[in-house]
Amino acid sequence: MKISIQGEKGCFHEVAARQFFCYDEIEIVPCSTFDLTLSKVIEGEADYAMMAIENARSGSILYNYTLIRESGLKMLGEHNLRVKQNLMALPGQTIHDIRQIRSHPIALSQCMEFLNKYPEITLVETDDTAGSAKLIAEHRLKKIAAIASASAAEIYGLEIIAEGIETYPKNYTRFLVVGNPEKGNRNGNKVSVCFATGHKPGSLAAVLVKLAEMNVNLSKIQSVPRLNGDWEYMFYLDLELPGDITLEKIESVLRNLTSNLEILGIYNKGDMLYES
Q1: pLDDT of residue 276
Q2: In the chain, which ranges are E strands?
Q3: Catalytic positions, please?
Q4: CATH number, residue 37
Q5: pTM here?
């Protein structure tokens, strides 16, 4: 099974993919952008894509909502990854040897309490956490460290100088498994939808009230620009279904209250395994 990810091997996307697929034999297909991860699935070069959609600290990745909707692919699974950030460098160095730290800007932002203790160290934003570790290893760069996963340190032969440096212990990122619709099922307990509403007072409120009357838990709502230049928005909702509510029932109700309704996927809710 081939899984496309954004980032180099050893990035958190790979960690999430291996956990979701229960550490089965999967082949990771690294991609430089989120667009390419979906293209690999569309072109048949990967079976699924693993895509980050939001972080408990940094919020939603709005661009990915639009990418998934426009791709024609569906959300088929969800995985919540406890993200542990680690500072790593070539073996034999300590934090006092480091003059530059490289990582993805979101990873850097998650570790600012630790990083603020070392104002003399320059922070450099990069495209990928694991890619930063790979660069250090390939070019044997001394006095430069990366923030990445423990898996990246192992893959690229780096030494962890400081582990678990993220500011908040409940630093989770939610990932989505995306694939062709025929690979999904209609028996999940969570459904993601998007729609537009009319430009009149109470349009969105009417939708939310109806969902509440059906005892449907709204676990997320996100507005994303429609990119048409008219300041119009699509609303993206994650709905947790009670046992007596089907996808067909949700679809029927929403079609009467919204426009441009799309079912982005039905899947099982990912577990939240809290760790210290």
Answers
A1: 38
A2: 2-6, 27-31, 48-55, 59-60, 74-82, 86-89, 100-103, 122-125, 144-148, 159-162, 172-179, 190-196, 217-225, 233-240, 259-267
A3: 173, 175
A4: 3.40.190.10
A5: 0.91
